[in-house]
Amino acid sequence: MKIASIQARAIDCGFQTQKLQTSRVASPMSRWPQFGENRSSWMWPSKKVFVRIESDDGLVGWSCTNGGEVVALIVQAHLSRLIEGTAVTDIADVWDQMFNSLLPSGHSGFSMMAVAAVDIALWDLQCKTRGVSLVAALGGGASDLPVYCTTQQPKPFSGGGWWGLKAATPYGPGAGEQGLRANVDYVGSFRDASGPDGRIMLDSFMAWDADYTLRFAQEAAQHDLYWIEDPLPPYDMEGLHKLKSGLGGSTRLALGNFSFNRWDCAALIREGLADVLQPDVAWAGGITECLRILDMAKAAEVPVILHNTCEQPWALALAAAKQSDPVVEFVDRGKGSSLYGLMGDAPVFKNGRVVVPTDTTGNQPPEAILNQFADHDATKLLKEV
């Protein structure tokens, strides 16, 4: 069985309207006043990218990632012509072809989102060919998993049995002493909601520097932060070493949201910087590459918590089948957000745990997404993205 066609489509699913985008959340751009009030004012192309791969016997594999029109164009204009006609079972070889073909233009960011989207859709197609769920194809695993919740409103999640609660920090260094105090108080609201023994974490989305992070950690010490996530850009290895030394193990460093392949992750592990590694399956090369990352982290005894897990059924399957003590992430998008069910049913939570999908029908977008692909041939799609 061979790959007959590949289509990619960038579709607005309301990402820019959800609360994390429209509220004040610190970011690499918040130092400029015109971009500090909300992420949607500057965020990269935010449409979701759906990839549809059809085999020559009519089966269809699906996936979804970020990156909007840029990633859709990479898939449609470049990757599709490389791998149409390839055997569906040659996923690892296809991955290597895609990665190496993109080396002249990049090996992270949008390029790896595109690779991830094709890879995930190929896994889905192979599972459908075999008539098994992804978690079964990966060796089987737990039926449900413990979840931590990323939210801006901790009170509604108090007492819900969650593994932990994570805040998205509102302010960066440019907000001065007043912003620092507001950040500390904000984390305090998470401590109040979780109780004295609950885990609380903080994501500062590359908005800080080493000195500010250490100052914040000192001021917030009474709240017993479990980790600080991505306080610095991933290229600032010197700053991360300064943090690792200055924190002295009192607060963990969770890194890797913006590590887009095994080599990025290997650097964090090799340098002893990541207390928790957090790659995103739909960004970091897909299932094939994340299997390699999980093996590498396991050998180094570095725990992995896959980023934004509960919106990605393939990430839940990976955690269930390939991790001995998995924890996954749920991002609070607001009640009824369409982002919860882009590849099937929305995740089901009970007492802070999420059910692992085991449906052998695999990834299946809702009808509104399927309609976007109806009667669109590859040439027309390319013009539209």
TrEMBL record:
Pfam families: MR_MLE_C (PF13378), MR_MLE_N (PF02746). Keywords: Magnesium, Metal-binding. GO terms for molecular function: hydro-lyase activity; magnesium ion binding. Residues 110-250 form the Mandelate racemase/muconate lactonizing enzyme C-terminal domain. Its cofactor is Mg(2+). GO terms for biological process: carbohydrate catabolic process. It comes from the Bacteria. Gene3D superfamilies: Enolase-like C-terminal domain, Enolase-like, N-terminal domain. InterPro entries: Enolase-like_C_sf, Enolase-like_N, Enolase_C-like, Mandelate_racemase_C, Mandelate_racemase_N_dom, RHMD-like. This is L-rhamnonate dehydratase. It comes from Yoonia sediminilitoris.
